[in-house]
Amino acid sequence: RKEVEQDPGPFNVPEGATVAFNCTYSNSASQSFFWYRQDCRKEPKLLMSVYSSGNEDGRFTAQLNRASQYISLLIRDSKLSDSATYLCVVSGGYQKVTFGIGTKLQVIP
Amino acid sequence: ETGVTQSPTHLIKTRGQQVTLRCSSQSGHNTVSWYQQALGQGPQFIFQYYREEENGRGNFPPRFSGLQFPNYSSELNVNALELDDSALYLCASSRRDDGNTIYFGEGSWLTVV
User: Fold this and answer.
1) How far, in Å, are A7, A69, A97, B5, B53 from residue B65 at the CA level?
2) Per-residue pLDDT tens digits for A2-45
3) Which of A19, A47, B25, B97 is the least crowded, having the fewest Cβ atoms under 10 Å away?
4) A38-64: pLDDT as tens digits
5) Nearest CA to B93 among B110, B62, B69?
6) Do A44 and B90 touch (CB under 8 A)?
7) Chain A residue with the nearest C-alpha to that of B90
8) Which helix (H) or strand (E) holds A70?
9) B45 part of contact set with chain A, CB < 8 Å
């Protein structure tokens, strides 16, 4: 089983739609969780951290479920500019940062 | 802009050659990590440097080696290049006391032919 698993997609959604991505992780001792965004042929950029209490940043909401070992990202009112690959990142400490394969999102006009 | 700079941005090497990639970390960041990202994959952890010493290593062979300098900049060296080494190589810097949040440079695209 992979340490961090994501559905690679692609998810093709119309503008204005709501889309959700999930990511599961295998190490119950994992400490920190993040979503990164990666545009085509660019470096990953931090989108948001993920907390058990859930956190929201504008149209983006992230949630962590430690009991089931998954994290989620919800994007509301999708924009064309949201088209990218979204990487789930799980950290067990400063030496152990593991990326998922990424979920590709394509927002269609 | 993350303040992490990498060079070169693109390079082509022949199988069997050696390559050195360079990274300057963000100001105030004392930890540098290197990642390999093959096409269609997520970044894979190669190793991390802190205080000029290797401080953790992923599942990569010894021909992948590195250095960190007193100013926290870093090099990744790959010997005996193989075709499968073709990838985007990402450098990420962080602060030791906040190592969970990492900031990437724009990467070095390596093609091995």
Assistant:
1) 32, 34, 19, 19, 11
2) 889 999 999 999 999 999 999 999 988 888 899 999 999 899 99
3) B97
4) 999 899 999 998 988 889 999 999 999
5) B69
6) yes
7) A43
8) strand A70-75
9) yes
